[in-house]
Design goal:
It contains five helices and four strands. The chain is an alpha+beta fold. Strands 2-3-1-4 form a four-stranded antiparallel beta sheet. A hairpin with a 6-residue loop joins strand 2 and strand 3. Helix 2 packs across helix 3. The protein is elongated and about 55 Å long. The two termini are 15 Å apart. The model has no long low-confidence stretch (mean pLDDT 92).
Length: 150
């Protein structure tokens, strides 16, 4: 699908705030509400817009610590990647599971109420998963979300 400048501007605006109405988006882009709706619909139908998510402030709902874990599997041949992914995805504190290339096999985003809660999640849930070898933790200090390359 070929995207024109208006499509890209529309995608940038929706990436910043997906809750805007088509009227609000149209006003920002100099389009009518129906034209904005048609463009959004076309982008959704083409799969360019894959969905919309509600983003919660983890700290405001009681999860004050975010940690990124690098996980290297100890025995890749003895456990399937799907088994590990299924098991780690069942841990409620794990928000994101990424299979990556590099020093680690997986990158996890884990939230916890505090450091003691994170230690519990790490020891009782993550480290007991099948195939887990080395784990490296990086505590998130601050985060700035950028709208992306458009």
């Amino acid at each position: 699908m070929n995207l024109d400048d208006i499509d890209r501007a529309l995608l940038r605006a929706v990436a910043i705030n997906a809750g805007q109405s088509t009227t609000q988006l149209g006003q920002k882009l100099g389009l009518s509400q129906p034209a904005t709706w048609r463009r959004l619909r076309r982008l959704q139908d083409a799969g360019v817009i894959a969905g919309r998510q509600l983003m919660l402030d983890a700290e405001k709902v009681g999860f004050g610590v975010t940690v990124f874990l690098g996980v290297k599997l100890a025995t890749k041949g003895r456990i399937s990647l799907e088994d590990f992914e299924r098991a780690v995805s069942a841990i409620p504190e794990v928000q994101l599971v990424e299979h990556v290339l590099g020093l680690y096999d997986y990158r996890l985003r884990v939230v916890a109420r505090d450091l003691a809660d994170f230690e519990r999640v790490l020891r009782r849930r993550v480290m007991t998963l099948p195939g887990v070898g080395n784990v490296e933790a990086n505590v998130l200090l601050s985060e700035e979300r950028l709208p992306g390359p458009l």
